[in-house]
Amino acid sequence: MTEPGQDRRKPTQLSELTDVYGFLDQVRLHPGVWVRGGSLLHLESVLFGYQAALSVHGIDEDSDFSTGSQGPFADWLWTRLAMQFPSALGWAVEIERAAEQAGKPALEMFFELLDEFRASNNGAQLPSRPGRQASSGIGQPHATVSSPR
């Protein structure tokens, strides 16, 4: 998933992660640790759990990922995959279908699409870095996301 010659990041302690993209960087480094069988449905569930934990702890972090067919990433994906209507099955299923048709691993295609999404400036979040502010694409107040101590 990392191209030859690209900077290889090292694993980070969970307590050092500052946002969902930091977590996804860890998934990219060691997908087998985080995603059973490379299933995007499992990754979607993990991201749902991430959002639930943020909510439970009162942390306001805008996310480009929602379960199912909503959210900035999904909205972008429907256009990218030339889908006339949003899929009721969600982004994970549709990427798995596209990957199967392309003959490549679904997780690999997910990260390729994620990189393209972020490069297109559709991503609500900036690259992972401590103390950055979460942007607000849906009218919620900005909040600084920091690591728990």
Summarize the structure in words.
The chain is mainly α and 149 residues long. The protein has one domain. Helices cover 44% and strands 3% of the residues. The protein has a two-stranded antiparallel ribbon. The C terminus is likely disordered.
Write the layout of secondary structure elements.
Elements: H1 20-29, H2 31-34, H3 40-56, H4 72-80, H5 91-102, H6 106-119, E1 133-134, E2 143-144
Antiparallel strand pairs: 1-2
Helix pairs in contact: 3-5, 5-6
Structural key phrases:
149 residues, mainly alpha, two-stranded antiparallel ribbon, 6 helices, 44% helix, globular, disordered C terminus
Q: What order do the strands of the largest sheet run in, or round the barrel if closed?
A: 1-2
- Shape descriptor reads globular
Radius of gyration: 15 Å
Total domains, how many?
A: 1
Report the β-strand fraction as a percent range: under 5%
Poorly predicted tracts of residues? 125-149
Helix and strand sequence: HHHHHHEE
The main β sheet shows up as: 2 strands, antiparallel
Mean pLDDT: 78
- Helical amount: 40-55%
Extended strand count: 2
Please report the number of helical segments: 6
Roughly how many Å apart are the termini? 31 Å
User: Structural class from helices and strands?
Assistant: mainly alpha
Q: What would a concise description of this structure say?
A:
The chain has a two-stranded antiparallel sheet.
